[in-house]
Amino acid sequence: MIDARLAPLQRWLLTPPARGLARHVTADQMTLAGFVLGALAVPALAFGAFGLALALLALNRLADGLDGAMARLSTPTDRGAFLDIALDFVFYALFPLGFALADPAANALPAAVLIAAFVGTGSSFLAFASIAARRGLTAADTPAKGIHYLGGLTEGAETIAVFAAMCLYPAAFPLLAYAFAAACALTTAMRWHQGWQAFR
């Protein structure tokens, strides 16, 4: 919902460090490093190290912003866009899994519901992007993205904010997961409607 509005601020903040990092590592290497850091949040969550998981979440998101900034300093590649998008979606599914492992009795069902909701938002996002690319459509408010970026009620910023809240208040995970799953379901329905209208 607010990703496009945050993009100019993100570019302003991350372009200077990205310029320095680009002399030593590639954007793809930054993407892979960010994913590894994010994946390490799963065992951290499973063992109840919620503060560590929050730090790993922050590092994952920092790397996710830096890789795009680094790519824009040279020439963004299709491989880079593919890696960035594919690994982001896996990370979004892994994070709730960590809470399920931490307390299966309390968290397994809400985690499963949330992951299922992510399938809805992710599949509608990617299906729209695929057909939009075939038709040569681009998103006016996110021209720097590697694919057509279809917005919604729950986008990256909202997802990360909820993940952070889960780390800060782990006992509230079931409530947060169900509430965000409902918001994701609404986003999915909105995207279905947008696709139905756009591709007639």
From TrEMBL:
Q: Tell me where the transmembrane regions lie.
A: 32-59, 80-102, 108-134
Give me the Gene Ontology terms describing cellular component.
Answer: membrane
A Gene Ontology molecular function term for this protein is:
phosphotransferase activity, for other substituted phosphate groups
* GO biological process entries: phospholipid biosynthetic process
Checking PROSITE patterns in the record gives: CDP_ALCOHOL_P_TRANSF
Alphabetized UniProt keyword annotations: Membrane, Transferase, Transmembrane, Transmembrane helix
Which family, according to UniProt? Answer: Belongs to the CDP-alcohol phosphatidyltransferase class-I family.
- Listed name of the protein: CDP-alcohol phosphatidyltransferase
